[in-house]
UniProtKB/TrEMBL annotation:
<dbReference type="InterPro" id="IPR039370">
    <property type="entry name" value="BTF3"/>
</dbReference>
<keyword id="KW-0539">Nucleus</keyword>
<feature type="compositionally biased region" description="Low complexity">
    <location>
        <begin position="126"/>
        <end position="138"/>
    </location>
</feature>
<feature type="region of interest" description="Disordered">
    <location>
        <begin position="126"/>
        <end position="148"/>
    </location>
</feature>
<keyword id="KW-0804">Transcription</keyword>
<feature type="domain" description="NAC-A/B">
    <location>
        <begin position="37"/>
        <end position="102"/>
    </location>
</feature>
<keyword id="KW-0805">Transcription regulation</keyword>
<keyword id="KW-0653">Protein transport</keyword>
<keyword id="KW-0813">Transport</keyword>
<keyword id="KW-0963">Cytoplasm</keyword>
<dbReference type="GO" id="GO:0005634">
    <property type="term" value="C:nucleus"/>
</dbReference>
<comment type="similarity">
    <text>Belongs to the NAC-beta family.</text>
</comment>
<dbReference type="InterPro" id="IPR038187">
    <property type="entry name" value="NAC_A/B_dom_sf"/>
</dbReference>
<dbReference type="InterPro" id="IPR002715">
    <property type="entry name" value="Nas_poly-pep-assoc_cplx_dom"/>
</dbReference>
<dbReference type="Pfam" id="PF01849">
    <property type="entry name" value="NAC"/>
</dbReference>
<keyword id="KW-0678">Repressor</keyword>
<comment type="subunit">
    <text>Part of the nascent polypeptide-associated complex (NAC).</text>
</comment>
Length: 170
């Protein structure tokens, strides 16, 4: 067969045919379902083995970290085995700073967290003082050796004018 005629037929076939015999296979991309349901079932099975019971009515859980941040769960699921001193908290947790949660969590703070809260309050006050001080305040503090003005310049000016007038008259 003629190579030019064969190339022409292949070009026509490629332009007209989208699929069929001789075309390249394409993989089908399937979206996977979220695996939270599977994870939840596995978690429930593990919790049943530990003999934990659900605790209803928990609105939020805050876990205080060593770096001063708080791991905050809103509407978590809480299970507990009090006899084994085992608690399971699961849900979506967010790491937040202590300042974001301060008014609502004051009754939850322990001695370690109170110390970090004190440090936070001191640093906040220092920041506030620096912001209230005008930018040229440092220059004013350096000029302590310059004495304050006591005299009234207008009165001195008037005296000098009176003296010059008296000299002109004499």
């Amino acid at each position: 067969m003629d190579p030019a005629k064969l190339a022409k037929l292949q070009a026509q076939a490629a332009a007209n045919r989208i699929g069929g015999k001789g075309t390249m296979r394409r993989k089908i991309v399937r979206k996977s379902k979220p695996s939270t349901a599977q994870d939840d079932k596995k978690l429930q099975g593990a919790l049943k083995k530990l003999n934990v019971q659900p605790i209803p009515g928990v609105e939020e859980v805050n876990m205080f970290r060593e770096d001063g941040n708080v791991l905050h769960f809103t509407a978590p699921k809480v299970h507990a085995a009090v006899t084994a001193n085992t608690f399971a908290v699961y849900g979506t947790g967010h790491v937040k700073e202590l300042t974001e949660l301060v008014p609502g969590i004051l009754n939850q703070l322990g001695p370690d967290s109170l110390a970090s809260l004190r440090k936070l309050a001191e640093s906040y006050q220092a920041i506030q003082q620096n912001q209230q001080r005008p930018p040229n305040a440092a220059a004013d503090e350096d000029d302590d050796d310059v004495p304050d003005l006591v005299e009234n310049f207008d009165a001195v000016e008037d005296k000098a004018a009176d003296k010059s007038n008296l000299e002109e008259l004499n």
